[in-house]
């Protein structure tokens, strides 16, 4: 499944398992949940196509090898794939790296410069990118940034300069209901409830329960100022294309909420 | 080949060389009567050394079960070479979405629960110190060993590769603990250390820990745990203090 966000940027989507039972949503009834519905935390990859070259950001999980290969093939056709960027070597994000490089042997593997054990992830021969590095695809320019809210040390965030899109990987993920797959946030019924973001960060970013709230809030201010994005394309949520900085501001409420109530639970 | 941690837990020590310092990428072997359980499987990078060490330790029979702390490549890199994809070896992992973690055939353990593996009881603990979302710490009720995956690690010098904590001159140093956590648990820069400490207090109050068995560090003997925890706390405070938001 995939959807064009703007010309040249495609959203590639994997639903993963229904989380209703594991998250005890029927019993807990968080504000964002509607009884009787299924709930998903998606896994997303993004394809950026410039006039000259193409770039894939993340690979979907090993459960979707055929899907990612078919979708990328559909989208790039004869142009092929020029760059494969791995945001961090976590299985659900990077698990199809080998399969994709086999299909596109001329593609350049791009990996975060951060961390010190690339060899243990078969990333030692990759082109390493750090804060401020960029790749000009022709009309679309991606820029790389040190990942702020992360789990793995080998991590990178990305922006696309022309469309002002921020790809914050594991940050700003959130669940959605069955029929909301591949909807933009502005297409959802009703108000976007902050409890969606709390549900995700209270489970997946396990260390959010320990943060220094003032410091994290100040960091979010810095991120809003630095990026001020038009579009936010998270790895585990729906794409935000209206009032994007306001959703970053919401992350301050998320920080406070998790500080007060603690960890919601695990992902599993 | 292996290093004894407690009467029935052995350490399969493997090092990755960062130049000046080394970092362990190890696994552990638990003997339960005739059965052998591996905790984690190490990196593909050390595949030959690991499969031959496990072969030696099991007289060529291989393990009966493998328990994974998480799917991260340096921990789950030898599941197949060690037989984890066969009928004979029980594979246990904590993920709620094993297909997406690339472990479709694993038996699931519930974090916060306990499970008997080949008749030995293990508890699965939500870890305060980790480098991936889907990680579990594993407590062996037999010998009281806490397997902490990416937490409680340290870098070490060449020559300290097979030391237990008590064999260091003055125990594992604060600097070695600090550098490991600074480089690998980067998110500690946003953390209030006392909050992590509270969770650790709760875990050590609930479980009677005789030894700590990290994947990326030297095993910590029971008598050294308090000193290690003091040094870890100093390290966490230093990591948080050194990172200023501008
Ligand atoms: Zn690790
Ligand atoms: Zn060593």
From TrEMBL, chain A:
<dbReference type="InterPro" id="IPR001279">
    <property type="entry name" value="Metallo-B-lactamas"/>
</dbReference>
<feature type="domain" description="Metallo-beta-lactamase">
    <location>
        <begin position="42"/>
        <end position="236"/>
    </location>
</feature>
<dbReference type="InterPro" id="IPR036866">
    <property type="entry name" value="RibonucZ/Hydroxyglut_hydro"/>
</dbReference>
<dbReference type="Pfam" id="PF00753">
    <property type="entry name" value="Lactamase_B"/>
</dbReference>
<protein>
    <submittedName>
        <fullName>MBL fold metallo-hydrolase</fullName>
    </submittedName>
</protein>
From TrEMBL, chain B:
<dbReference type="Pfam" id="PF00753">
    <property type="entry name" value="Lactamase_B"/>
</dbReference>
<feature type="domain" description="Metallo-beta-lactamase">
    <location>
        <begin position="24"/>
        <end position="195"/>
    </location>
</feature>
<dbReference type="InterPro" id="IPR036866">
    <property type="entry name" value="RibonucZ/Hydroxyglut_hydro"/>
</dbReference>
<protein>
    <submittedName>
        <fullName>MBL fold metallo-hydrolase</fullName>
    </submittedName>
</protein>
<dbReference type="InterPro" id="IPR001279">
    <property type="entry name" value="Metallo-B-lactamas"/>
</dbReference>
